[in-house]
Amino acid sequence: MKPQNVLILPGWQNSGPDHWQSRWETQHGYCRVDQHDWMTPKRGDWMARLEEVVLCCDGPVVLVAHSLGCILSAAWAAHSRNSHRVQAALLVAPGDADDDALREVLPSWSPVPTQALPFPSVLVASRNDPYCRYERARHLAAAWGSRVEDLGYRGHINAEAQLGDWPQGLTWLNELITTKA
Predict the structure, then answer these.
(1) Whole-number Cα distances in Å, 48 to 1, 40, 44, 45, 151
(2) How confident is the model over 21-38, as a mean pLDDT?
C-alpha cells in the first residue's frame, strides 16, 4: 500500500504535532484529510471532503480515524457509493456525538450511524475516555462489525495520553494494511 493511500482522519479541532496521528503522518508519509473547518465541523462537509480524497487516490485506501474521524468514517461508509475503495479502518477513541454534551456543540453529527461497515476495522477504546464511555465504544464496535482493542486507561488516546509514536497502534494498522478483505 502506498503511504499516501493511508488516510489520516483527525477529529474535532484536528490533531496537533504531538498527537500520534501527526507523528505517523510525518514519519510514514500518510495523508491527512484536511477539513476546511476544524472548529465547527459539519458532517456533510466532512463527508464530501473524504469522498473527494478517496476518489483522488490511486488504488485502495486505509482509514486511520481518531475521535470524530471515527464517526466520519461510519457516516461516509453508510452513504458513499465508493466505500468499496476502503480496504480497512483503524478507529481510535470514537467521540460519542449522541451524548448530550457533545450533541450541543456538534449538532450535525447526531445520530451516530450504526450500520455495519463494509470493510474490516479495529476499534481501539479507552476505559476512561471523557468523550465516549467504554461500554458505548463497545456498542459502536459491535454495530460497525469492528474488532475491539482495549487500551486500558488512556483517556481520549490523544497527545495527552503520551503515546509518542504509539508502536502498538502502528502494529494494528499494519495488520489491517496486510489483510485482504
Answers:
(1) 24, 15, 6, 5, 31
(2) 97
